[in-house]
Design goal:
Distance between the termini: 78 Å
CATH superfamily of the largest domain: ABC transporter type 1, transmembrane domain
Bound molecules: adenosine-5'-diphosphate
Shape: elongated
Structural class: alpha/beta
Helix content: 55-70%
Strand order of the largest sheet: 6-7-8-3-9-10
Strand content: 5-15%
Number of helices: 20
Largest sheet: 6 strands, mixed
Amino acid sequence: MISAVKSHLGALRYGAALMWAATPGLVVVSFVLQAVQAVLPLAGLLLLRELIDALTVALGQVDPASALAAPTQYAILLGVVGLCTAALTAISTYVSSGQGAWLNLHVQELVHAQSVRLDLAYFENPAFNDSLHRAQRQGASRPGQVVGRATGVLRGGLTAGGVIVLLASVDPVPLLILMVAFAPGYLVGIRNANRNYAWHERRTGAERLAATLDQMLTQLSFAKEVRAYGLGSHLRDRFHTVRSVLVEETIGLARRRAVGDLLSQVVVVVALIGTLVWALRQTAGGAMTVGELIMYYGALQRLVGASRQIRGGVTGLYEDGLFLRHLREYLEMPPEVAEPTEALPLAPLIGQIRLSNVTFSYPGGTEPALADVSLDIGEGEVVALVGPNGSGKSTLVKLLNRLYDPADGNVHWDGVDIRSLGLAAYRDQFATVFQDFARYPMSASDNIGFGDVDRLAAREDIRQAAKRAGVLETLDGLANGLDTPLSRWLHDGAELSGGEWQRVALARAFFSDAPIVILDEPTAAMDALVEASIFDRFRELMQGRTAVLISHRLASVRGADRIYVLDAGRLVAAGDHDALMEQDGLYAAMFRAQADRYR
Ligand code: ADP
């Protein structure tokens, strides 16, 4: 119990700290505003009492009209209090909307920073994606609510404190009864919060599914097939089924919330009426003036209002605490591919990258994607990886980029375990065209420049890279040349063919000055002539850099210095083309199968 409260308070502190970090100035301003707003109702009550009593005195005068000066003054002061309240409410709304917007940005930026820090493996894990979804959905609003609600509790507490002193000065007993009547409201609020939280936990998967279906129905990348296969109404039905269950559950939660709230309010109203009847009797017996009765009634109303505010704040804070754990959980996840505590300096490769007995399995995979693989990639060499689908070639590329770490075995960079090198410095050594390379919905120039983002403005180098990849002419032919956005989704955007996109990805790798280029099926979508032009000039294009090439077209890897043959995650043969043909194994069989088809 104590530890639950502690972790709860911890989460709230965390939320408040986020808010403070986002807008420290506005937090102070809003606290001050709330404090002033809290005492204004008390001033109003006191003025009202004075006004009524002054009026009672005036009515007892011979000439009541001439004795109205005092009550009139109080009436004017009440008006001033009303104006101040209105002005402060307006200012508070303004301040809190600014606070909310900045906070939203701040949290979004934290989520982004963490998202790029975390490993690729996380993004392939459904539980992680649930966590990210929750952080994105709840993360932006909750920290702001913590501060908003805490100030609400403060304000309600100040008002309630003042009112309680006023009421207690008359008689504390009815007051105590009323306070006890507030208790069920808190219990109901806490139960509602627990239910709401548990529901969100349970339904994150369904919410994500609904969001995915929504994307399929509305996004360009699916639009073609959705039409060609007539998937529209089927996907809409699926969306409706998932969403309508969520809607019904939301309504069910709201219903239970409303019933609980209502019942707890009934208790308060009954207690309130009892207290009022008591006050009426007091006035009839002469123990209270009419002014005091009216103030007493006003004070009771304020107390109920303040108590509602405190209850809403406290139970809301309780709920925020539950949800903030999500955000914190996400923002504090440690990357698995870790930075060394003290990175060794990275020297340019002079010998080789050596994989020794590398084994790697994807989470949930039954067979390892790579099993006991040992191979060398020598500096300046062109090394090819070949093998059937699913034999582990792309996985090896990801391990080389240190997107994952092997479960067993290790990778050495000139004898240094890559896990002791700085991660960013190490990854900078590679320019990789992944099989599923990214197609950035940005300008052509950005798409190439992202190969070395520090030189994004090096226009001439970007053109050179495009030229080497054989795509410059195509890009120059677009409406705005290299500045044309490469997506029909964007204004004035253009769409490239699959082969043209591959050449853009290749240009991106060429633009990078990384010493090792890795190309995973870089020409699969290119026409035969373009492909031939690339492989005929392959070494020239690589400009002496180390190259790792994966290709199913074995004619294109024929000239490699070393060819590694993988099968079902194992290295089954190595050597140059002639040696492998002579061995007459898997490589020779694959090579002949392709060659025969061209005869
Ligand atoms: P290749 O590039 O040789 O076609 P991969 O390295 O992509 O093969 O895949 C090797 C094995 O690992 C395959 O069985 C594949 O299904 C599995 N695999 C690849 N990527 C993932 C992933 N992200 N999560 C789980 N399994 C994966």
